[in-house]
Target: Formyltetrahydrofolate deformylase
Amino acid sequence: METNVKTTPFMQEKGETNRGRLLVKCPDRPGIVAAISKFLSDFQANIIESSQYSSDPEGGTFFIRIEFDCPSLEEKKAALEADFQALAQEFTMDYQFTYTEDRKRTAIFVSKEPHCLLELLWEWQSGDLPTDIALVISNHEEARGMVESLGIPFCYIPANKDIRKQVEQEQIALLKEHQIDLIVLARYMQILTPDFVSEFPNQIINIHHSFLPAFIGARPYERAYGRGVKLIGATSHYVTNDLDEGPIIEQDIERVNHRDHVADLKKIGRSIERRVLARAVKWHLEDRVIVHENKTIVFQ
Amino acid sequence: METNVKTTPFMQEKGETNRGRLLVKCPDRPGIVAAISKFLSDFQANIIESSQYSSDPEGGTFFIRIEFDCPSLEEKKAALEADFQALAQEFTMDYQFTYTEDRKRTAIFVSKEPHCLLELLWEWQSGDLPTDIALVISNHEEARGMVESLGIPFCYIPANKDIRKQVEQEQIALLKEHQIDLIVLARYMQILTPDFVSEFPNQIINIHHSFLPAFIGARPYERAYGRGVKLIGATSHYVTNDLDEGPIIEQDIERVNHRDHVADLKKIGRSIERRVLARAVKWHLEDRVIVHENKTIVFQ
Amino acid sequence: METNVKTTPFMQEKGETNRGRLLVKCPDRPGIVAAISKFLSDFQANIIESSQYSSDPEGGTFFIRIEFDCPSLEEKKAALEADFQALAQEFTMDYQFTYTEDRKRTAIFVSKEPHCLLELLWEWQSGDLPTDIALVISNHEEARGMVESLGIPFCYIPANKDIRKQVEQEQIALLKEHQIDLIVLARYMQILTPDFVSEFPNQIINIHHSFLPAFIGARPYERAYGRGVKLIGATSHYVTNDLDEGPIIEQDIERVNHRDHVADLKKIGRSIERRVLARAVKWHLEDRVIVHENKTIVFQ
Amino acid sequence: METNVKTTPFMQEKGETNRGRLLVKCPDRPGIVAAISKFLSDFQANIIESSQYSSDPEGGTFFIRIEFDCPSLEEKKAALEADFQALAQEFTMDYQFTYTEDRKRTAIFVSKEPHCLLELLWEWQSGDLPTDIALVISNHEEARGMVESLGIPFCYIPANKDIRKQVEQEQIALLKEHQIDLIVLARYMQILTPDFVSEFPNQIINIHHSFLPAFIGARPYERAYGRGVKLIGATSHYVTNDLDEGPIIEQDIERVNHRDHVADLKKIGRSIERRVLARAVKWHLEDRVIVHENKTIVFQ
Model:
């Protein structure tokens, strides 16, 4: 966790500079795959990975994620995107091109408990999170040393219910200034207002410390203890304006028993939270998650 | 599943005829283990397995399950139980002696879906459920052939909301007549009335097809699909008069994804239900489950 | 498990009569997906599911499995296959069309322990194994009643080392006569000779009762007990002439501890074997498994 | 991971100063539990947790671990241990008293890969590893910054095959000087000689990056990839003079598939190694592991 620990920048891996991704959502009908793959083939793009899903082969919605390798991608980008418009129109597509060279910029929000932040920093240092961590924002000072030792700016913004509006304005200004693409709530214990959330649709990932929809809201471990469950879990989801009701990206659980008191559940829970959040963030960064209605399609 | 498949009767295993179990619940204080183990030692009983739990070492409730081997147990039973009363009084114990030779008598309730019933019959035939399956009760005829081919009485009792009272009286009469110790609801899709439940406290085990407390009530797979969860589960619990709120014995889950429609969730769910119910029933039959308030202590 | 239990024939599900699958293996190069999807599109075939894998984007082997829905498939089959030859030649493809209407014909081999056979029959009756179980062959009589009660022919062929050659000739004759596509060794405790194996390349699936490559060969549970492992497992693989060395299709494990003696490991192991074999067989029947060198690509 | 992150010293938890543990191994016979529990009761020690195991109720070896709370334990220790000798002699016991106040002193050995070291430091900082980490020894300099920032001495001792003898003498001297009770090989990539190992019997814990006994020896991930396994694992075990053959404490696995190349297996493997090693070390520190022949009894 020291600056002398060499990081493995994701982008330096062989061939990544010519790597792109195309995400498409459109009404299902025959011929979509043929059209897209011919289009890419005409640009000499080689399909590396392709995943598709149809909500219902007869009249549902079709989703596809294609990862491709294209020589001289940098020079072809403009033409690629321009030419795709006709095809998109023909099939009424929602679509998005992304390029691994253009790393997403992430801000992490944290309160007192550092375990989720630490896991993300750890994964990032190991080269497993393809992003620039541009900023850590906290309503506590605890994590400053660790964050700054990695060369990441740390912004201390005290927060409470009474000054929420003003705090969020300050946060939004910072996020805009740093051109943030993704906000990760790594156990940030403040509620976000609809105004804040609407600024970043499907761009805020939270970790909730229960297997939703069980134990929505506060103090889930205490309530899990009270109910005598034999499994506890964690859920990572996009933030919407319905508390803990946003589209679920990933969940996991561990087994507990009658010997585990609330403190034990929290301890076990921390390790679930760490891995569930890290997976969800990784999949988002690799453009593997498509939100559809209130669910996610995750192309692992 | 034919009568010519040889069953392995649990009781014929070596030494089991002298095997007993003692379950104790009492206020915690020093000296309980010493007193009990001295008592058993004085009867030449050798402790084979012992598990204990204290809800709080300072002033909580103490629980212990002891499995012991005692030569000539049959002849000593009466003296053992009589002499224990003094000790029990001294420590204000709730307690219970059971003997593996006295197999519990089980009734299984089932509706149309046979998978949980089949799993229990399978485990029982393999010698893994130490019980006499005395009776299968169903509001459908589907399972009759399979049940009767194993030499188990099958009782068809049509049921619906309007005749619930009368149906339950008939069921209770049958259960009493067959001296039933345990009722397993193996996907029995009728609600039991408080009158029925109060006849069999902590003697009715149900399987609910969700990881409670998520999706209490009807159609949990449909609701899991609607919420877009990434895990589905099943829960086995004792039946109380609060729907799906009784003490949980066992839970388990499996991973699902966006490709899994309701029919897939049901299919995956069936295999979870089978193993969760089988484990809970087995633990109950081996006297490994103690109910305390609305939770279970399970001494695996 | 009685004949009066209604089976759910897989093929009667809506739309299945027009469902086909294409499996392709060829040298990787740009344009394969475009060519195949255009080809299918020209036949009005709608791609329902598509999975691909490239062993190395630069110069490796490319694999794709496409499931498609094609109106009037029965009438178009001949043209589809004939026309595909040109494309296959251009890309040097190994390929195979299969149709869900043409159910594979399966023979199950079993010895004394019935649990794997029972699981397969159970899954088959539930409609989860899309195959015709044409034959059960055993060197013991135990399973006859159960098998015949389902209307499946049961062939008792006693076997031992000394008459192996003659036994296998009899078995091969039966398998040819019944036009068997898949042989499942559901705990069949006889070794097959190279002559037998070479008759059915990548068509024989075995279940080995350890997580290979640990405990290759005989008595794996005894050896797992001796080593004091904390996990035991099972492995389903295609049979080759190297004992327990064929391509692995699926593996799973369960946790054990010091209390579990050999008999316990066997009991726990049975439930792992059941589910591992059932999954492997299902994936094979759905054409989800491609063998490449000594490994499998499984498009789940 | 900075010095300003407050650590939660395990010992400051309420009541721990009077907490002791007794581990016993002896020939099984009736009356052992009675004798021990009476002995503890006579010292006013309250049994908090008790776990026992008998390798064979008729003539096997009996094992028990008792955790007890005893007022004024510090003053009674000497008498407790002196008086127990008579009882130990009567039952031919191997036994050991430990006290949570006397924290074990741990040395961690590491080479280049820091993930296991980091996990142990993380758990230790969270108060989950009840030990004093007295020393980190490495044959590389990479981890120095991180270790020293936590106030732990870091000893760089270059090592290779040719100077093994001299390196180990230096290490042993350091370990003796620091009064080390436990050595953790957290991916230390040097082989230890029998002389070194014999100095610390059952005091050296290693993490091997496969599910032993599969892939004993070097390059297990490469060999797992070559074999095409569908699960990879890690194993924590005590070090003996037979390479990777020592008593296994803990194992775990994760699922992999054909898409995972060697680099992916290593990445996934790192997270298995982290948690398997952390669990094994924790159980050892809590005196939950008893070595018997070449196996472990783990009283979780």
The first strand of chain D starts at residue 19 and ends at 27. The interface with chain C takes residues 53, 211-215, 227-231, 233, 247-253, 257-259, 294-298, 300 of chain D (CB under 8 Å). Residues 86 and 227 of chain D are 56 Å apart (CA to CA).
